Amino acid sequence: MKSQPIRLSRFLTFAGLLSFCLAGSLVAQAPLTPGLGKTTPPPATVAATPFVCYSAVHVDGPFIAMTFDDGPSEKLTPELLDLLAQHHIHATFFVIGTNVVAHPEVLQRAVGEGHEIGNHSWSHPAFAKMRDDSVRLQLQKTDDAIRAAIGSSPTLMRPPYGSITARQKRWINSEFGYRIILWDIDPLDWKRPGAAVVTSRIVRETRPGSIILSHDIHPGTIKAMPATFDQLQAKGFKFVTVSELIAMGKPMTPKQTGEYGAAPSASPSRSPAATPVPAASPAPSSPNP
Ligand code: NI
Fold first, then answer.
1. One of 70, 215, 216, 218 is an active-site residue; which one?
2. Residue 120: active-site member
3. 103 touches 73 (CB < 8 A)
4. pTM of the entire predicted model
5. Domain containing 121 — which CATH number?
């Protein structure tokens, strides 16, 4: 009984995040401003850009993306890289600029072993409350640090705390070319609930297309990963990087969109009592991703 409110609230977070992401990601191309005295007819078809924000991806196969935030950590990230290599898993690391500058060799190793790197800001502030020039500086300094460490800029960005407005998503995508990556699975590992709890939360909730949030700066998270990887692989899940997952994305029909936000068929154990919530734009519940 105790777990039910948690599961329901996490489901609602997922449904809300998906709505939030989709609502903020279909950017119709606005017609050019007409010249004086002229009118420009609207385009025959409204072209939509690809999604710029993802909390999960609609895929056909059992593919998922494991993500690790807030590193690199000098000690814990190399331990995690060992585990990932043992399990033949490629993951995605959303890194903090100050940590990149402190431990560029860890980032170099991660990239050399096939993992993906994303921008997670310079010092982990909440973007939604910030001025554009401050956000721009957070992203640019981190982009520069990543490029100095590994020779190329990232193509993904995750806002700290998931804190970002729809307007920020658009201009950040436009200026930096980043896709904005949130998550649909949050084991709340930053609360340090113990390795077994982290594992069980992830394994219970993960479904095809999931983007799983965790942090490679907490010892309990690293300790949770061997069992997490074993159990997810035993269920048939295949791990890919976030960009690989996005590349596998299939368009959703309106019917599928409804199913997607309701009861995922991949998680038959999920309570069927959960119902979709109206489109809203909540901030993710985790205060420390
Ligand atoms: Ni974070």
1. 215
2. no
3. yes
4. 0.76
5. 3.20.20.370
